Amino acid sequence: MENQVTQRRPHVVLVPAPLQGHLSPMLELGTLLHSKGFSIIIAHAIFNSPDPSNHPEFTFLPIPDNLSAGNAAPANLLTLITTMNSNCEAPLREILAQLMNKNEQHDQICCIVYDMIMYCSGAVAEQLQLPCMILRTSSASAAVAYESLPRLYAEGYIPLQDSKLQDVVPWLPPLRFKDLATADMGNIEDILEISAITNNTRNAIALIWNTVDHLEHTALAQIQEIYPLKFFPVGPIHKMAPPTSTSLLEADINCMAWLDKQAPHSVIYVSIGSIAIMEETELAEIAWGLANSNQPFLWVVRPGSVSGSEWIELLPEGFKEAVGERGCIVKWTPQRKVLAHVAVGGFWSHCGWNSTLESISEGVPMICRPCFADQNISARYLSELWKVGLHMDGQLDRVKIATTIKRLMVDEEGKEIRQNAKSMKEKTNLSVSKGGSSYSSLNELAELIL
Ligand code: UDP
């Protein structure tokens, strides 16, 4: 550590949030900034700690946090955010102050970049008089929608009324009131309080977005009106950076050999990301829906993601025999490689923002089945605006699942969606290539930090 911190490169401290979907883009941003000549220090919570051996070029500084796995369950996310910020603020300040005292004048920290939900870093930056920037790891569309929550609350739309759920929010098309569902995140007063804290940019000089201008031009312009800061849309960050391992869970690479044996564009890949969970009844409906679809499928069942079971003990009787070699079930995949594989023809996703960007980058059309929070917003944009997915809404049942898979993978309707996904991939490739919007934005960001 000592050697790296005293190298004569300007030091940037990155403070990621300890959740898979937040950690990956921050580490990849680190790789990008390192390639621009910065020395990278990752100040990270001990809970869900990244693996330093995957990034020998970074310096890692663990922040004692007193957190445990139970804190990261979906129902506890608001508490996780407040607890981790109150637990991390003092140790982070101490660690950075020590670093500043130790380093020579020319080796000082030139900037802190923190994840929006690690807002205690903004306070620390202020106290230590360091410039800071904020990384937003979810979409600009979600930011616009959540900025609207106080208005929706003040005008009596929240708590949501059943009679209005399907209506489009007049000032947020194509979003419906139901896409702004907040009940699954906790009580509305708590949500408003945390949104106010996380949306407070304090003395940050810029917002860095893991998004791409061609996808979210309008949303970025709308949110720019609210935040008069420099904006840097540099995404999809994973496409800008060379591939590195940022996964907290070990991927089962056997699924790649299974994919090699499948016909091009035939496989439906199914994953609900790193946090969402499901009930046993949903597991059974998904299983029979996949079985009845007659398509090959690669299904990620994350250990602990089915209530009341360790892994796949609760799969319905007769299911494995019914699907045989046509189905591959694993605990975790190398998702980006899976989506880039020629055999994959569709992605049934919970529409987490990283999964959304990863699917768009590879031109894979989607079945959108959001579980909570901003996933609802991405699902609506994917299906209604970008038209690269089908929204599988309402109660989950095996008939609906098999029909939706057929619509996407076999029917004419699916061909059009696949074509849209392909052209979205091409635009995204241009954005991350020399002269493209994200490419140029990253260069401007590096100049500003210097
Ligand atoms: N992921 C993976 N293997 C899996 C499932 C997910 O590598 O089997 C990765 C995926 O590529 C993405 C991240 O986990 O980068 C999930 O982030 P996302 O924002 O999509 O959803 P979240 O987990 O935050 O709900």
UniProtKB/TrEMBL annotation:
<dbReference type="InterPro" id="IPR002213">
    <property type="entry name" value="UDP_glucos_trans"/>
</dbReference>
<keyword id="KW-0808">Transferase</keyword>
<dbReference type="Pfam" id="PF00201">
    <property type="entry name" value="UDPGT"/>
</dbReference>
<keyword id="KW-0328">Glycosyltransferase</keyword>
<keyword id="KW-0414">Isoprene biosynthesis</keyword>
<comment type="similarity">
    <text>Belongs to the UDP-glycosyltransferase family.</text>
</comment>
<comment type="pathway">
    <text>Secondary metabolite biosynthesis; terpenoid biosynthesis.</text>
</comment>
<dbReference type="GO" id="GO:0008299">
    <property type="term" value="P:isoprenoid biosynthetic process"/>
</dbReference>
<dbReference type="GO" id="GO:0080044">
    <property type="term" value="F:quercetin 7-O-glucosyltransferase activity"/>
</dbReference>
<dbReference type="GO" id="GO:0080043">
    <property type="term" value="F:quercetin 3-O-glucosyltransferase activity"/>
</dbReference>
<protein>
    <recommendedName>
        <fullName>UDP-glucose iridoid glucosyltransferase-like</fullName>
    </recommendedName>
</protein>
